[in-house]
Amino acid sequence: MGRYRVEFYVDAKGRSQVQDWLENLKRHNPKLHAFALRLLRTLEEQGPDLRPPLAQPLAYLEAPIWELRHRTGIRLYYWRQGELLFIVAAGEVKDQNRPDPKLLNLAVQAYKAMKKGKVN
């Protein structure tokens, strides 16, 4: 077990976009699923010590969201609360240089909901 605890964000309806994405990835692309799990373990072990190009803060957002990336196109979006890292959105991008706007929006909305206490 790592120094940090990784948890998947669960919305007010009890759903986790990240868990759903991982399950779909496991069924349809086991190799990419293994890369995603490796990224999660790395985050759990190193947390905020990770730096670009693997992890970077998205300072232009309305929330303290970080992007964890892999050369395969995997993107994981998360925020930190102490030793807890909330993975809030995940997916694959086609353009390595640009984040997925839908995933970013999901991450920001989830952060706002959490701040308002509207999560499980």
Please sum up the structure shown:
Pfam families: Gp49. The protein is of the alpha+beta class. The protein contains 3 helices and 5 strands.
Task: Classify the secondary structure makeup into a structural class.
Answer: alpha+beta
Number of strands: 5
Q: What is the CATH level 1 assignment?
A: Alpha Beta
**What about the largest sheet?**
5 strands, mixed
Terminal Cα span: 24 Å
CATH superfamily: RelE-like
Unreliable runs: none
**H/E element sequence:** EHHEEEEH
User: What shape does the CA trace take?
Assistant: globular
Strand content: 15-25%
Oligomeric state, counting identical vs distinct chains: single chain
> What is the residue-mean pLDDT, rounded to a whole number?
92
Helix segment tally: 3
Q: How would you describe this structure to a colleague?
A:
This protein is α+β, with helices and mostly antiparallel strands and 120 residues long. It has a single domain, classed as 2-Layer Sandwich (YaeB-like fold). The protein has a five-stranded mixed sheet. Helix 1 crosses helix 2. The longest helix has 17 residues.
Please render the helix and strand layout as text.
Elements (H helix, E strand, L loop, with lengths): L4 E4 L8 H12 L1 H17 L8 E3 L8 E4 L4 E8 L2 E9 L8 H15 L5
Keywords, please?
120 residues; five-stranded mixed sheet; 37% helix; alpha+beta; YaeB-like fold; globular; 3 helices; 5 strands
